[in-house]
Amino acid sequence: MYVSEKAPAKINLTLDVLYKRDDGYHELEMIMTTIDLADRIDLVDLSSNTIQLESSSGLVPQDERNLAYLAAKLLKEKTGIKRGVAIHISKRIPVAAGLAGGSSDAAATLRGLNKLWQLGLSLEELAQIGAEIGSDVPFCVYRNTALARGRGEMLTPLPPPPPCWVVLAKPVHGVSTADVFRNLRVDHIEEHPSAQAMAQAMKDKDYEAMNNLLGNVLEPVTMNMYPEVQKIKQKMIQFGADGVLMSGSGPTVFGLVKQEYRARRIVNSLNGFCQHVFAVRMLGYLD
Ligand code: C5P
């Protein structure tokens, strides 16, 4: 038996930090959506009670430190199933980029194993298990558009954003989310984005409002650690994107553009300034 699952990346249209919690995590309010850039997860059933993992990218761990491996291990523990799996990850999403690549691989592994092993779990149950792996995994289980609260695991679905193109630009270095949160001074946040107003823009399919409301309180923190992020943002604005923001804890910067030819032009202009540059469609959800 064999199952293949698509593991799409996400971007944050808003990301706000409300306060630091007693458990060390930060209470968040953010709107995330799904874009047309994905890893592929292939799962092959094994009769032996083992988990094997290999990835097309040398940049991700090929053992139990990989979130997809953790997902398989946790699912086996929760269900008591005594079967094994060989996981192969075809990596296209840049690593440590703020695009939830690792979380999406874990979520796709949960969805795929649910089919492969015929576990009959609901998406809600898979999301609950996913929350134990990482804060973004529940969102990636649903791969839609949502308002996320709590650590990121309390999700309210939203309508997809208006159709457009997303230009993504990632500097060479990756960023540790934990480092960015450690450097954040919650009492020093100058401007809080409005998730409510952004949610309304989604409902109204208002592309212009969506661009005006983009905001991420982690952006100045990561820019302070890696000034290159600011330079890429400036270039993306200069080259004509309608709205520009860093995704998650970064360092990937995305620009929204209505027409494909303008997205391609920005990609051409950015080539040479940073390592990874793509233009993909905004999806909003993946069935
Ligand atoms: O949940 P996850 O393991 O993906 O988070 C990585 C790190 O990011 C956490 O260890 C924590 O330092 C930080 N984090 C946080 N508040 C959140 C989510 C993540 O402080 N809501």
From TrEMBL:
PANTHER family: 4-DIPHOSPHOCYTIDYL-2-C-METHYL-D-ERYTHRITOL KINASE, CHLOROPLASTIC. It is an enzyme of class 2 (transferase). ATP binds at P94, V95, A96, A97, G98, L99, A100, G101, G102, S103, S104. The lineage of its organism: Bacteria, Bacillati, Bacillota, Bacilli, Bacillales. It comes from Thermoflavimicrobium daqui. Keywords: ATP-binding, Isoprene biosynthesis, Kinase, Nucleotide-binding, Transferase. The active site is at K10, D136. One of its GO terms (molecular function) is ATP binding. Its EC number is 2.7.1.148. This is 4-diphosphocytidyl-2-C-methyl-D-erythritol kinase. Residues 198-273 form the GHMP kinase C-terminal domain. It catalyses: 4-CDP-2-C-methyl-D-erythritol + ATP = 4-CDP-2-C-methyl-D-erythritol 2-phosphate + ADP + H(+). Residues 66-142 form the GHMP kinase N-terminal domain. It comes from the Bacteria. GO terms for biological process: isopentenyl diphosphate biosynthetic process, methylerythritol 4-phosphate pathway; terpenoid biosynthetic process. Catalyzes the phosphorylation of the position 2 hydroxy group of 4-diphosphocytidyl-2C-methyl-D-erythritol.
